[in-house]
Amino acid sequence: MNYQQLPKIDLHCHLDGSVRPETIIELASIQGIDIPSQDIEVIRDLMIAPETCPNLLEYLKRFDLPLSVMQTKEALERIAFEVYEDAALENVKYMEVRFGPLLHKEKGLNVEEIISSVVAGMKRAEDVHGIKGNIILSLLRHMPTDEINDVIDVGATYLGKGVAAFDLAGGEELGFCEKFISFAKYAKEQGLNVTIHAGEQGEGQNVYDAITMLGAERVGHGIHIATHQQAFDLVHDKQVALETCPSSNVQTKAVESMTAHPIEDFRQRGIPVTINTDNRTVSNTTMTKEVQLVIEQFGLSEEEYMHIYRNSVNAAFTDDATKQQLLAV
């Protein structure tokens, strides 16, 4: 099976976790920012999380360096372009990239400038490489909530023009959903789709809450419905797609090993699973690697893989015309 040539869709990819190491060095030089080294291998090592981290928080530390250079319009536009370019070159047909606009205000950019720059980078990649895409706006659960509706309002002006959805990300505590009910409701009222990081760190209840309280149409990770029957049944009955990220899940100790990953068990039991990168640089991965990992670990046929591909098409936050194109590969 030619893994590079297989058509792919990535629905769960973080912008700040997918920056090219060489771009970090160049942008730091342009912006006059001190970084630990000019050696690309040293920078790469600082950006890539260990194959197994003690926990999610250790993994999240890898985002500090890229965020330091992602505070100008030019940097955001360039990095968005490059993430889509890298994906297009491995036959990713459609990609949804998520990022937290409020993490990019340190040098005075406003939310409009931040979102428009990322959208512009994506649009340039669409023009140059033929890949299709949308942007998901991630709000961080640990940050103050007073600007969330501002992000939603700006994002809503880009609906159908590059922005598709609202997301909650960051460290996961049991019961986080209740705090964000009003914001998810407001996002839906403005026309945004909703996907929520939940069930990544052992809390299947959070998946149930994300769907019932926040109206999540997809769930980021969601793997711990394996130990929460009520959440499993809800995901199955409502056919809520899970954005699984195999390598990342092993790294963050969400699962002990790839052999223990529930993606294939879920697929066989009728859960609409998808394969995604999470963070191309931090997890030192590509969609080709993730697809190969799953196919070889679980002995999937090409048709079984294409079933997962079609799950991704059906779950994508895009219009019917684009879905028809994606299904016609």
From TrEMBL:
Cofactor(s), by name = Zn(2+)
Q: Where does Zn(2+) bind?
A: 12, 14, 197, 278
Q: What is its EC number?
A: 3.5.4.4
For whether the record's keyword set contains Acetylation, the answer is no
- GO CC, any one term: cytosol
Reaction(s) catalysed by this chain's protein: 2'-deoxyadenosine + H2O + H(+) = 2'-deoxyinosine + NH4(+); adenosine + H2O + H(+) = inosine + NH4(+)
Q: Does the keyword RNA-binding apply?
A: no
For this UniProt record, give its keywords in alphabetical order, as a comma-separated list: Hydrolase, Metal-binding, Nucleotide metabolism, Zinc
Xref: Gene3D superfamilies: Metal-dependent hydrolases
Entry function: Catalyzes the hydrolytic deamination of adenosine and 2-deoxyadenosine.
Q: What is this protein called?
A: Adenosine deaminase
Q: Which organism is it from?
A: Vibrio thalassae
Task: List the top taxonomic levels of the source.
Answer: Bacteria, Pseudomonadati, Pseudomonadota, Gammaproteobacteria, Vibrionales
User: Could you tell me the gene encoding this protein?
Assistant: add
